[in-house]
């Protein structure tokens, strides 16, 4: 079996607890780091003063944890809507600033499905992502696009059209298995130059589904995590505990080792009646490879 060395992260929102309780829970289950939503409420960058940021960073450090990434997913139609893009771009920059203040340089996000180059939306997304990429490049950070809405080869073509590595990849193997049917193992090799963060999640596809119905697109219902959780419970795909789905973790982890990925393996659990127990088991599942 492949031996892995990457640190283990946990998405705090998966515990469905207030943030400080979720942070303590992450420590209890044996995680090294945490990924935190930072788009609204107490974690909205506009609501966190410089003092509050220092206190939160200290609280996390005192638990023996670090921030693997922030989630800056502003939902809706990603960066497909030219009217919404100005405020989304500005807020995304502020979320990256917050990440840097908390000791991470990664913000994960969904940008919307990348269409073919001849589609009018393509240029809109490219313009928005180029601005984000240049900003991230200037501060030494990354906006990491979550895999799933399109194939890895198509995502790579889009990323290759942007400046630098400011726009990068948050690799989620389960999304690929559940929605596009793309091969996550090959996807790692395809996107190797861009992967800065990963999700460890498992699932299976029940039937083929139009990615636009899952992740939204202009003209379709916008993406929401509530809708995703509903679809992953009783819909065209199922999110399952690690090892119970169709992600080939032996070869997936081997691929990450092969490309020299040293970042976080962050557990995400969007469904289930006892997420804390599922996450604890997921940590143990990953540790079997160490």
Automatic annotation (TrEMBL):
InterPro entries, A to Z: IolE/XylAMocC-like, Xyl_isomerase-like_sf, Xyl_isomerase-like_TIM-brl
Domain Xylose isomerase-like TIM barrel span(s) in chain numbering: 23-288
UniProt-listed Pfam families: AP_endonuc_2
Any one GO molecular-function label of the UniProt entry: isomerase activity
Entry annotated with the keyword Repeat: no
Keywords: Isomerase
Cross-referenced Gene3D superfamilies: Divalent-metal-dependent TIM barrel enzymes (3.20.20.150)
Keyword set includes Isomerase: yes
Protein name: Sugar phosphate isomerase/epimerase
């Amino acid at each position: 079996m492949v031996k892995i060395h990457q640190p283990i992260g946990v998405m705090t929102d998966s515990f469905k607890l207030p943030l400080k309780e979720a942070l303590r829970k992450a420590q209890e289950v044996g995680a090294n780091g945490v990924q935190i939503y930072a788009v609204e409420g107490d974690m909205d960058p506009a609501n966190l003063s410089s003092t509050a940021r220092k206190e939160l960073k200290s609280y996390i450090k005192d638990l023996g944890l670090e921030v693997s990434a922030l989630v800056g997913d502003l939902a809706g139609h990603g960066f497909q809507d030219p009217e919404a893009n100005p405020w989304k771009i500005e807020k995304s920059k502020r979320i990256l600033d917050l990440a840097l203040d908390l000791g991470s340089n990664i913000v994960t996000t969904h940008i919307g499905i990348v269409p073919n180059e001849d589609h009018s939306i393509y240029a809109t997304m490219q313009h928005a992502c180029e601005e984000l990429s240049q900003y991230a490049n200037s501060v030494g950070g990354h906006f990491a696009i979550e895999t799933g809405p399109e194939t890895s080869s198509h995502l790579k073509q889009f990323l290759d059209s942007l400046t630098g590595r400011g726009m990068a990849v948050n690799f989620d193997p389960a999304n690929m298995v559940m929605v596009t049917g793309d091969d996550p193992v090959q996807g790692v090799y395809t996107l190797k130059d861009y992967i800065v963060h990963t999700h460890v999640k498992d699932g299976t596809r029940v039937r083929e589904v139009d990615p636009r119905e899952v992740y939204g697109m202009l003209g379709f219902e916008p993406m929401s995590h509530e809708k995703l959780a509903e679809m992953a419970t009783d819909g065209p795909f199922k999110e399952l505990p690690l090892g119970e789905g169709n992600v080939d973790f032996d070869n997936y982890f081997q691929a990450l080792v092969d490309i020299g990925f040293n970042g976080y393996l962050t557990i995400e659990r969007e469904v289930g009646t006892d997420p804390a127990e599922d996450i604890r088991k997921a940590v143990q599942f990953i540790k079997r490879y160490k």
